[in-house]
Amino acid sequence: MSASNKKYTTVAELKNLEEGQNTPFESVFLLHQAALKTARNGSEFLSVELGDTTGKFQFVCFADTAVFLFFHETPQGSVVRVQGVTEYYQNRFSPRIQYSEVVPEEEVESQNLLDLLIPSTTENIAEIWTELLDFAQDISHQGLRDTVSQVLSQTEEQFKSSAAAISMHHAYRGGLLEHTVHLCRACKALLPHYPEVDSDLAMCGLILHDAGKILEYEGSRVTQRSRQGILQGHVVLGYRIVRKAALQNKLEPELLERLEHIILSHQGQLEWGAAVLAATPEAVFVSMLDNLDAKMGMVQEALRSTPKGIEFSQYMPGLGGPVLINPVPKGSNKEDLDGEN
Length: 341
What we know:
Blueprint: H1 11-15, E1 24-38, E2 44-52, E3 55-62, H2 66-73, E4 79-85, E5 88-89, E6 92-93, E7 96-102, H3 105-110, H4 114-117, H5 125-137, H6 142-154, H7 156-161, H8 175-190, H9 199-208, H10 213-216, E8 217-218, E9 224-225, H11 227-231, H12 233-248, H13 253-265, H14 281-305, H15 334-340
Antiparallel strand pairs: 1-2, 1-4, 2-3, 4-7, 5-6, 8-9
Helix pairs in contact: 5-8, 6-9, 6-12, 8-9, 8-14, 9-13, 9-14, 12-13, 13-14
């Protein structure tokens, strides 16, 4: 069966099928990872993750099977065509894959399959990039403004395309830009309530806090950590990027120290990757906003990826539990309630 004749083409369609029906399907997906693991009895198995722009799913395949050998040998980021049967395991969609093959690159290109397989921000990249530049130009302090402008001009293409994470939040193409612009919007809205926070320094810190992620992550199809990302991490990489630009723009020593502190502390907790805990008004402000937008990004992902008719999302590691999907009921008002009495 060719790709154009598939009955179900997306993860969302498969997850929306009625559970327990064991429906046969054929689809094309992007191979995100195939992790080799060992069961308690000593046998090996693969935990495979496939996905497209509508979501991801995982399934298990055991050793000494054709499917195991295929995914064990197929490179991450490959486009694969699979046939299988819909199944669930512990309330998670986990289909039984019966056949798999790599889709030839000429077919990937001719059918523009990557547009259907690589998750991306739903916002207009050009528009939110212009919005980010406007936020940068609104910084009144010249040294901070020039520092931000230099970093953005030197990293424009990477900043536009990079994900903000591999799996936790804004983990898709353009996620870093989307996350940063959301933070700038929140910053503008909240600054009037906190006059003790220096607005220029806070905005500069928010725009640059995750600059190291352009070096931490790599991969045109599947986001993975680079050698630099593994050995140093985005906090250290971002510190170096920002410090270099600030020194070249002759930022005052104490202001540079405070900006560096924002970068080093924005993760919030040492166990979350912060080099130090936030110890200035601006660093606390940036850290808390960053955590807020990261958490809400997880909520938004849960709302997008949960099939229709399901009350709660799957367990969200970054939130410590599932998310209630049903919208807030607003069909009743006081008059309606009075009429029932």
